[in-house]
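Need fresh eyes. Consider my entry:
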Amino acid sequence: MTTAAASSDGLQRFINSAQTYGIEVKVISPDKDNQHKFKDELDLHNDGDIVVFVDNQHTVFASGTAKILNSFKDFNSDIVFPKYEMPLEKLASLKPQFIGYVSALKQVLLSYDLEKGEQFTEFYNKGFLDKKDILSQLSFSLDSEETIFQNIDGALNDIEVRFDSNTSYLYNIKTGNTPHIVHGSDENYHAFNNITNYVFNKWTPDQGCPTCDEIIVDYEGIDEEFYPSVLIAVFFNDPTPFLNEFLENLFALVYPKQSIDLLLHVPRGLKSDTLNQFIGKCINKYKSIKVISSQPKDSEMTAFSKALLECDRLACRYILALDSLVQIEQSYMLNYLLETNHSVVAPMFPIPGSAMSNFFYSPEQYAMVDYTEIVQYTRKGQWIIPKVNYPILVHGHVIPTLLNTSTGAYPQSLPEMCKTLETKKIHITLDNQHYFGHLGNKVPIKTKPAPCKHNDLFAITRNQYLWEQRYLHPDYVKAVADDFEVEEPCPGVFWFPLVTEQFCKDMIEEVNCLDIWSKGSHNDSRLESGFEAYPTIDVRTDQMGFHEQWLKFSADYLSPMAFKVFDQYYSMARSNTSFVARYMPGEQDSLAPHHDGSTYSINIALNKPGVDFTGGGTRFLRTNCSIVDGRLGWAIMHPGKLTHRHEGLKTTSGIRYIMVAFVDP
């Protein structure tokens, strides 16, 4: 038995644990007649029946009925109370927990006249601590060895979760017992929540989380008009890396758009044609769209409270809050989250290439190994956690609690909302059962000069995962694999896909925006010697603030290919000379035969022969072999210093753009 005024996440967890072991639970509504309600419930049972009475917010079952009863009978007592490691003044304020025979409990209730309105928590205090005459008639015991009740207060160093095949249980290292009922308190709220992520077979190494894939609410087959209304509140960062991908992923969510209201919080300084085009596209698609342009004194904090108020105004069933760093890759994410039917649920979003995610590491709740395995998806399940970053889905029934309209104390930020949820004992559930997407890195790009046109082109050092999706040729990974035969159009010259058409377009636009082309003269102040034997009209990567990015590009994508095609040559990926060159009639249309000052060189075609220009290409003199039909985004890789003297063939019309690097000089 337990008492509860209303449904709560703690109560539902308690009931779930009981159902795991087939334990019947009776929930009593607490009021001033609570004592009489409890007695009425006892009257429904035989005197020889055994009743367990526990708090439900901080309690779960960890064993079945048979084990609980056997341990109770071993005490040979009428009533058994748990052991508490805390001062008596705190103990007296706790809700009672005990196991006992119905006949004994009836006697206790008849022996004490609880004052009208007195809370039933006094039962423990008056029935056991006061040690009145009732003890001469009944036998009371303390579960000092914690065979039935495990109170985790003061015992966190003595207990650990263990696993046996498909079962999970709590083990007391100090006593050697496996307690059947686990309970905590407000003071160890996070630690208790973590324990309950595992016990009552919630998660085991062999079967993972057996209940996580149970669909609580199934929307399959339901007409779109009956889908619950969702407010999607988006907080845009300035700048937002890869904004186009974020907006495309948001729009691609598979959910009836007429059931979605969009609230977009846009910083006043964020100027974006991409965002404006998205807003224009959305106007007739979604149920509504509202744009809030922040004032200079505004912040994400005030915007967050506005989103909660907007959800309350719309009477939305759910609010999905996210910022523009959230890159959704699972289009069914919203459907999935709604079907879990949690009060608050956050899909896990890792930051690629790091041990970080929207799930904050909390040393008082998680061992580092737990956190690492959860973030790396080697431990999949649903986890009650203390706080989280975007994205997060909040059920509409939670909104009135958050707004607390009687005081006007609205949560002004997501961290503040997490704190309010903890205070109200509303669980935040992290779900990493599936990969939903990832978080971008908002660390600003600092280059000299600053990017002229395409910030994302420079983001390889901050957001490499996203950078690769946009700019790395989709066939590069296949080409660099051991079992793929790289094309060799000329002896010792290798040809392979490297970058996308978007990379080529953005790179050409970036160098033309900077407009700092060299003069193509032998006298070149950019060089330490001041002299260039074979000059081109070009823009060097160090001039455009792209040199650090190019070095990373070389190490991650050129070195592996060099290792493959040059008989396991290990490249240091040093590239002091890298540039974008252009050839055009009337300016510089060709380049005389020469050797490169490198171990190997790279030449990337940035535009299309026969479309953007005619003529052009590269001829290798020793073999009299030419490559004239360049492929957009493909690179040729060849030795530089000794064997492959080459020339740039004449461009007869248009402008030919190439990106060149001399690697390992």
The two ends are 79 Å apart (CA to CA). The longest strand covers residues 656-663. The longest helix spans residues 547-565.
